[in-house]
Each structure stands twice: as C-alpha cells, then as structure tokens.
Amino acid sequence: MISVRDLWKVYGPRAERIVGSPEADLPRGQLEAQHGNVVAMRDVSLDVAPGEVFVVMGLSGSGKSTLIRCITRLIEPTAGKVFIEGDDVTAANDDQLLQIRRHKVSMVFQHFGLLPHRTLLDNVAFGLELRGVDKKDRRERADRTLALVGLPGMGEYKPHQLSGGQQQRVGLARALATDPDIMLFDEPFSALDPLIRREMQDEIVRLRRELGKTMMFITHDLQEALRLGDRIAIMRDGRFVQVGTPAEVVLQPADEYVANFVRDVPRSHIVPVDAVMAPPSDGPFSGEVSADTKVRDVVALVAHNELPVRVVRDGATVGTIDRVGVLSVIAGEDR
Amino acid sequence: MSAVSVESLPELESAEVVAQRRRKRSIALGAFVVLATLALVMSHEVPSWLDLNIQTKAQQAYKWTIIHRQSAPIFTHFFQPLTDFLQWLYDMGMHVLEFLRWPGVVAMAGAIGWRTGGVRAGIGAAAAMLGVGMVADWNLAMITLDIMLVSVLIALVLGIPLGIWTARSDRAERVIRVLLDTAQVMPIFVYFSPVQVFFGIKVPPAIIVTVIYALPPAVRLTNHGLRNVPVVLNEVGESFGANARQQLFKVQLPVARRAILLGLNQVIMMAFGVVVLASLLGTGDLGQVVLNGLQKQKVGDAAAAGLGIVLLAISLDRMSTGERSHKFSRLGAAMPAVPRRVANGVAVVAVVLAVVVGQALNATAFPAWLTVDVASPIDSFVTWVQDTFRHQTQATSDFLVTYIIEPIENLLQWLPWFVVVVAVSFIGFVSKGWRLATGVGLCLFLIAALGTIPGGDGRVLLWDLAMATLSQVLVAIVLSVVIALPLGMISGRSDRFERFLRPFLDIAQVLPAFVYLIPVVFLFGVGRSAGVVACVIYAVPPCIRLTSLGMREVPHAPREAATSFGATGQQEMRMVQLPLARKSILLGINQTLMMVLATVIIAALVGAGGLGLVAYEATAKPNIKLGQGVAGGLAIVLLAIMLDRVTQAWGTSKQGGNQ
User: Fold this and answer.
1) Which chain A residues touch B8 with a CB distance below 8 Å?
2) What is the sign, positive or negative, of the torsion defined by CA atoms of B515, B516, B519, B520?
3) C-alpha distance from B235 to closest chain A C-alpha (Å)
4) Closest-CA residue of chain B to A98
5) Cα distance between residue A200 and residue A163, in whole Å
6) Count of beta carbons in the 10 Å neighbourhood of residue B575
7) What is the ipTM of this complex?
8) Number of CB atoms found within 10 A of residue B458's CB
C-alpha cells in the first residue's frame, strides 16, 4: 500500500548535494556549522502491506514527523520515492497530489487540528467538502462517522466545548469520513491523559478490526507502539535503526539504543508462545493454546498444573510450553 | 552506551572579535573628532551652493499640473476619475446618513455596539453618538463621520488583499511593510502639498490622506492574523487536499477572522485621528471648527467641537471593539438570554423604527432642545482659570522656553551644520554601524540642501527650522520619558496601579492628538511651550502603556527563580525584569518619539513654528508656496527617518533583551 524508497529530507542550502554524500554522516552540529544543512531524515525505506499497522517510534527530533509528512508531501522530500498503491507520489503533479490527498490518504494530528469556527459536523465533513460532495450528502456521512467514533448526535457542538479525548475522536472521524484506504496518525494521543489514551488505543484496535484500514502510526510511546503495531520501526537521528514485529524488537534488539529502550518492557506481554515453546511432545497436557497467544496469558494455565500446555496452529500441534518455559520468559524481564 | 550526549556549545565571541570591534569604534571616534574640527574651521552657515533648488522645481511642477490638468492623460484618465469616484463615495455616504436622520444614526451606533460588543458597548456607543449632537454641530460631525467611513472602507478593500498577499510572500511582506511603516510614521502635514497637487482640495484629498494612515493597520492585522493561523490547521487543510483557494477561504480566513475584526478597531481609530486633521484641507467638518477656534482664540467653540470629536471617537470605539472578553458583566447578566437571531432581529427592527420616526418627524436637523451650550460655560471657566493661574502657567511657559527649549535650539542652530551631521552620524555608528551612520548623515545632509524660505527679516534656512523642530522634539521626548518611564515601571509591577491607570490610558488612546492642543492653548497661550506640553500630554499615556507591557511580557520563570534565590523585589526588578524588558521598553520609546514628532509638527497650528508651519502654510496658498511646502515636508520626512532609524537600532541591538 505504501512503499518508501531511499527517502531523504535535508534542510538548508543546496540540500541535494548532501544526500548520500560523506557530509551526511558528519555530526549534526558540524554539518550545520560548515554547510548550513540539517539532515532530518536519511535513507529511509519501508513497505506497509494492506491492512497492516506500521508504527514508527522515536524520540523528538528523530525525524518521524518528517517521515509521515513526506508521505503526502506536506513536506517535500529532498530525494527518494514514495508510492501509494503503486502510484508515484513524488512524481505527481499538483492536481494528482490533490486527488491522492482527497481520496486515498487521510491524517490524524497530534493537537487535533480541528477548525475552531466549524461545528463538529462540518469539521468531520471537511474532507468531503473539499472533494466537492454536496452539502446534504456530506453531512449525512459526517453524522454517521461521528456515531462510529462514539459521538452520536453531537454534530452541532463546537470543538472548544469538548474534552481533549472527544476532540481527537472528532479528528479520527474527520479522517475516516473520506473513507480512505490509508490513514496516517501523527502522535495522535500524546496530548491526552494516560487513561484516555488507553481508551483511544482500544478505539484504534476496534476500528482496525472493523474497517481493515492500512495505518501508519507515529508515536514516542513504546507501550503504544507495542500495543498497536504489527510491525515497529525504531527511528533515531533520521534513520531506521530496526524494523520488526514487537516480539523481534523486544527479544532481538538491533543495537544498544533499542535494547535500552525495550529493557523495561514486560516480555511476557509481548512474546507469543511460539517464540519460546519447546518441540512437540506426546503429552499429557493440561490444556491447549493457539500459537499467537502471549506468554502472559498462559500463566493461569500452568500455575495450577505441573503438566505442559499444548501449542496449536491451524489445528496442528506445533510445540509445548510448561511452567519453566513461562517463568523463564518472565524472569528474563529483569535482565 | 548512554543515550545522553553533551551537545556541542556555540563558540564564544573570541577576544579578537571584541578587540576588532573596539578598534573600529576608536577609528570612528578619531574620524569624528577630525571631521568636527575641520567643520568648525569651515563656514558656520550651510553654504548656498548646496541648495538643490528643490523648491523651484516643485513649484514649476505644480504650475505644470495646473496648466495641464484638463489635458494630460495622467490627470484626465487617472487622477480626475479617481477624485470623482472618491467624491461620489462621499456623496453616497452623505445620502445614507441624511436618510437615516439623527435618530437612525444613534440607533445604528447602539445596535452595532450591542451586537458586536454586548449591552454595555451598545449603550455606550448610542449615548456617545447622542452626545455628539448635544455638544457640537450634528451636520459637521456627520461630514467627519462620512469621510472616515469612506476612508475605512477603502482601507479595508485595499488592505485585506494586500494583507493576504504579504501573508503568503515573505518578500512582499518585507517591501510592503517598509513602505507602509514609513508612510505611517510621517507627520500628516507632509502629505498635504502632494495630495493637493493630484486630488485638488476638500474631501477627496482628505480621504486619500486618511487612507494612507488607515491602510497600514488593515494590512498588518490581516497579515498577522493569517500568519498566526496554527501550523497544524494549515497542515490539516493541505493533507485533506485543499487547493490554494480552498485553503484560504475555508481554513485561513475563517480562523483569522477574529484577529482581523479586532484590527478593525485600530483601523477606525487611526482613520479618525487623521480625519480631524485632514480638515485643514478644507473639508468644513468638526475639525475645522476646532482649528478656527484655536486660531481665533475662541476657546469655547474649539472646546465644544473638540468634545464632539471626543464623543464621536468614543462612540466609534465602542462600536468596533468587538467581544472584549468573556468577563462577567452585571448588565449583561441582567438581560434575558435571547438567541442570536432574535437579538439581531430586535436590533434591525430598532434601527428601522428609529429611521421611520425620524422620517415621520422630518428630523433633518438635530433638535435645538436637545443641544447643550457648552461653549459659554467653558469660556467663563477658561477665563476664570486664566485669571487664577495665569501667573503659574505663564511662569512655567517662560521657564520652558527660556531655560530649556531656547538654549537647545540656539545650540543646534549655532553649531556649524556639518558638526551636527557628523555628530548624528557618529551616534548612528555607535548605535548600529556604518550603514546607519551613512544613512542618517545623508538625511541631515539633504535637509541642509533644501535651501531657504522667506521669513523673519530676509530668508531663513530650512536647516535652522529643522533644528528648531528637532530641539522641540528632544525636549518633549525627554520630558515624556522622564514622566512615563517610572509610572510604566510601577504599572508593570503592580496590578492595582495598572487597574487604576487603565481607564485613563484607554481614553487617551482613543483621542486624536489634535484634541490635546485645546486645553494646552488655554493654559499656556500659543507658542513653543504649548506645543511641547501638548506633545508630552499626548505621548505620556502610550509610553506608560508600552513600558508596562514590556515589563509584563518578561517571562515568569526567571523572575521566580530570582525570588527563590532571595532577591528582594527591588533587586529582582533591577537585575531581572528591567534587563529582560529593556528591548521592548526601547522600542516603546521609539514609538513614543514618532508620536512626539507628529505632534510637534501639528503644534505649528498653535504657534510652535518650525517645519510644521512651512508644510502647513503651503496648503492655504499652493500657488505661491507649494514649493516651500514640499521642501518643508521633505525636511520632516528626512528628520522622521533619521530619528526613527536611530532609536529603532537601540531597540533591536543584539545585546541582551527579550530573546
């Protein structure tokens, strides 16, 4: 759905010159002093499969916001290619770009970005209005979308009358209303309280299950990345340090930087049993679980029974896990 | 590996750079001393060969325009149609105001005030408008109002698109801002001679002059409003596929609407301050009554008309302040809550009713039984004041003239002109560098090259008149700052004092400089001291406000930190708040200085002499004096640029200040 190839963003004079040159590897301060350039993103490539949730995680200044803005060229990349459903976004003319933005991709913003002078209904209908959908039609669809995100019948309110969580639900509805194939999320929940954030994450999980959108999600919160992502890319100094499933990132961190990050993550919440199971044996078993069950969810089974648990995938036994196996994952958390 | 790394620090200024700067400065000082000595040896007077004959050329050009007014395409195809169009707009406005009759105008003021600013603003606007008719000539007031409305309309029609353009292009912003700022900083008399050449007399040139001043706030506020649209909202529009037009009309303008509407108030008040002065072009409105009263020493008439102007200003201010804040208002709370549409309907019906009643009663003139004679009580009051305080005011006035204004004026005129040029250049150099030094030096040099005008016994150098004006400006700015700075500092630290001052400052902000001349003339008679005192009265309130604002803008954190380390209030102010507010305060002084200059020029109306008189006298007799008027105006422009650039350099210098 989304393919990114060798994408660079360099600020400053004659930015193209820096791309791929030895200067790009200079320390940040030195490059800025010598050439007046800042490399915000370097040599990023990625592919997001249809229906996948791809999370980009990094601290502030790591280039993740630049990356997501380059996808629809809110920021013009310096070099590289972006494809959306096979169309080359980087080569699109103004008109084609507008069509892509209006029909294929929509975005949810960190600080909501609701238009203060419009009612919720007109905010949600904004994308449809830009597309030229007539008033009655777009309002109907906006009304339905508001209900979908849990704000039924609140269309006549103004944004300032809502709490932060509710405002972001509107932001979400606005992005959903145009029925895009791809949704981009730029740290959508980082301005929210932890409890509300949790609730909104559940909302994303639900919407994804119900609507099957392809999503690219930016966050600085590792927990959020692990909860939502099918795959996670860890970004630092403008480049990807590691790309992998949550389990891969937690169990096989690519370098010390990532290792530092994931050190405190409770592994049992992330690791599926098939990643740590023993080879199949003949039982007897105390029960059976599917291969993608998280280790934590086996604890109750093995706690009361010495016998191992059978791990099945598509009806076939693929391995076993017992109390020792479970405990060693949990114990590993404190390494 | 630790995730923390110390960022590299920017290099400190090396000792070499500092030494170099010192060296440069001493070179300049040396050059200054040498040049000054040279100049002292050279002739005192501006040499006659320096005269660029600008006056003669301007006079010739004017003659040409008179002869060719009917034939030259630039007149027949541009200026004349434009002039006619302005006159037509004015006539239309007059028809509307006459149709509304006075009850309609008062009701309209109330309705607009109510619907945009709440009950209190509505009552204030209507009451003030009614007051205008009670104390002053209603028909003359309507001329003032009409010219102002037409000017504001034009300023908005031109200013909003310009504002949109400047918001989209940094280059356009730079160019247009310099042009508009320069135009706005100039004292109004500067424009009189040129607009007369191109637009004739009476209403059309008055509208043009007013638009010159009302346009900058319109452009600036549109620009400001659009540029302050949060980045994320722009991104929202873009990311959902808005094209440029949709982005402007669906996102940016609606979001900026509030800021732009708030700016409307500034546009109106700016226009108003100018309209009353533009009456010098012969519009025959309230401003002219004040002017005549001042010149014929008819205190009561001038004061009554002045009061009318003040009330009109207050009414307009109430009408255009918009929603000030959501503060609780007892008056508003007492009103039953009505939906907006109903309230709007009520307002419209009230205005229509007032118009119908006005038409039915055939209320063409403001009824005599409603008018209040303010002129005679003021006259007798003034007589009493003059009899009682004449000694004191006379003594103050004499003191100001003999011991302060004249010595400075004499000094500046006695100094060889080139010494002044070099000295001011030196100040420019120390303030910023070679470019500023050259610029201000050039300004003064050009003033010297403007030649002489007839006056006194024989001919007077424009240079000497410029020095006279400069001396008044210097005295007035020093007095203003001495008075305003301490008050501003107190108000910047004490909420209670600020609350106490605020109503005074609010009213003072609304009044045009013109109005201040009236009481000053009663007390001090005509002359230079009256001008200086009027300047001080006019300049002190904004100076207090700007100082206070600068103090209050200082971030809370460093002040709190100082207090937590045990700084006393006085230490905290001296060591934290004042240094951090320094830049804002200096910029405030720059603004005050420009107001002082504008007022010094206007004070020519009450006998302050100087360049203002040259520029203003020419308006009455363009046939013989236009050349002088142009030269006088140019001298004012050059003086204004010089003063503005130097003081701006203080406020924007690199060392210290707010970020």
Assistant:
1) 27, 29-30
2) negative
3) 7
4) B241
5) 13
6) 14
7) 0.73
8) 7
Flag whether residue A107 sits within 8 Å of chain B, measured between CB atoms. Answer: yes
Length of chain B: 659
Question: Does A29 sit within 8 Å of B241, measured CB to CB?
Answer: no
For residue A55, what pLDDT is reported? Answer: 92
Per DSSP, A46 falls in state E
Scanning every residue of chain A, which has its alpha carbon at the shortest distance from the alpha carbon of B235?
A: A74
> Which residue among A98, A112, A256 sits closest to B241, beta carbon to beta carbon?
A98
- Pick among A117, A156, A222, A261 to test the B interface (most B CBs inside 10 A): A117
pLDDT at B587: 80
Do residues A106 and A180 touch, judged by C-beta distance below 8 A? yes
Q: Answer yes or no: CATH 2.30.42.10 is held by domain B374-415+463-659.
A: no
Q: What is the SS3 assignment for A57?
A: strand
CA angle centred on B471, ends B539 and B191, rounded to 5°: 65
Supply B539's token pair. 């300049």
Q: How far is B326 from chain A (nearest CA, A)?
A: 14
Which residues make Cβ contacts (< 8 Å) with residue B54, sequence separation at least 6? Answer: B449, B450, B451, B627, B630, B631, B634
Q: Which chain B residues are within 8 Å of A98, Cβ to Cβ?
A: 241, 243
pLDDT tops 90 at residue B529: no
For B8, which residue in chain A has the nearest alpha carbon? A29
Domain assignments of chain A as residue spans, ordered by start: 46-104+180-265, 269-332
Return the structure tokens found at B229: 């649209």
Q: For A162, what's the count of Cα atoms within 13 Å in the CB-facing half-sphere? A: 22
Long-range CB pairs of B329-338 (<8 Å, 24+ gap) are B329/B118, B329/B119, B329/B120, B331/B118, B331/B119, B331/B120, B331/B123, B332/B118, B332/B119, B332/B120, B335/B119
CB contact under 8 A, A126 and B240: yes
Q: How many helices (H) and strands (E) does chain B have?
A: 29, 2
A201 has a chain B CB within 8 A of its CB: no
CB contact under 8 A, B239 and A72: yes
Q: Is B456 left (phi over 0), alpha (psi -120 to 50) or beta?
A: left
A96 touches chain B (CB under 8 A): no
The partner residues of A79 in beta bridges, in order of sequence, read A8
CA B413/CA B465 separation, integer angstroms: 9
| Domain A269-332 architecture | Alpha-Beta Complex (3.90)
Q: Which of B1, B615, B453, B354 lies closest to A260 in space, CA to CA?
A: B1
CATH topology of domain A46-104+180-265: Rossmann fold (3.40.50)
Closest CA to B573 of B482, B481, B659, B490: B490
Please state the rounded mean pLDDT for residues B333-348: 66
- pTM score: 0.70
CA–CA distances in Å: residue B373 to residues B128, B298, B383: 16, 14, 17
CA distance A71 to chain B (A): 10
CA B355 to CA B367: how far, in whole Å?
15
Angle (CA) A57 A61 A67, round 5°: 60
- Angle between helices B578-602 and B528-552 in degrees, nearest 10: 150
Strands (E), B463-550: none
How many angstroms separate the CA atoms of A241 and A262, rounded?
A: 13
- Interchain contact A111–B (C-beta under 8 A): yes
Could B1 and A260 be called an inter-chain contact, meaning their C-beta atoms sit closer than 8 Å? Answer: yes
pLDDT, tens only, B460-488: 777 778 888 888 888 888 888 888 888 88
Residue B53: pLDDT over 60? yes
The nearest CA of chain A is from the CA of B218 a distance in Å of 22
Give the whole-angstrom CA distance, residue B599 versus residue B624: 26
Give the rounded percent of residues in chain A with a pLDDT score beyond 70. Answer: 99
